[in-house]
Amino acid sequence: AITSQQGIPTILLALTQHSKIESVQISGLSVLLGCVAHSLDHHEMFLAEGGLDVMIRAMTTFDQSVDVASRGMELLKNFTRQSLDFQRAVFAKGGIGVVVGLMKTHEQAHSVQDPAFACLRNIAIHPENRLTVAQQGGIPTMINNMQIYIQDAAIQAYGCDALGRLAGGEPSNQEMILAAQGIDAALAAMTTHPNHPGVQ
């Protein structure tokens, strides 16, 4: 009902007009997350109306806010899962660096880390994004945070999947993963979660 009544552009306009008010950004991103979740058409509307720019601006303006970061990451997780075109759009807007940066800033916030790992896993599907993830520091950041959340099976599965995709066909990424103890991280995940098919 919200999207059929021009809700997405209306919310994006409000977020733009009140870009310096954290509470508005949190609420607006929350509503957008509900509006676009699990709908390719709504994600396309979100992209066409400039939603990525608005969301990334909020995430960078309030980079110390766990609430903004977690909602933005959830949106990015769902968005990048939809298509290769959406993954390319995130790359084009500088979103990869934003994701990695917030993973570093909020390494103790599970609500940020879980969707961020899933987002990088999705982004790494696209071969053109893999070197950029590495160049932005994504590999050591993921491996470090996998150690912090070693007991979280979902994060371990996302992390192993992302590292595997980043290694595919990219010798420089393979060397970086090795240097950052990525193989040790994968083996630790497998040892800690022997009954989790995703990790294994």
Number of alpha- plus pi-helical segments: 13
Helix content: over 70%
- Cα separation of the termini: 41 Å
Low-confidence stretches: none
Overall structural class, as computed from helix and strand content, comes to: mainly alpha
The main sheet comes to: none
What is the strand content? under 5%
Structural shape = elongated
Mean pLDDT rating: 95
Strand segment count: 0
User: What is the radius of gyration?
Assistant: 17 Å
- Provide the succession of SSEs: HHHHHHHHHHHHH
What does this structure look like?
With 200 residues, the protein is an all-alpha fold. It is built from 13 helices and no strands.
List keywords for this structure.
single chain; mainly alpha; 0% strand
Brief sketch in words of this structure:
The protein is mainly α and 200 residues long. It contains 13 helices and no strands.
What is the fold's blueprint, element by element?
Layout: H1 7-17, H2 22-36, H3 40-48, H4 51-61, H5 66-80, H6 84-92, H7 95-105, H8 110-123, H9 127-135, H10 138-148, H11 153-167, H12 171-179, H13 182-192
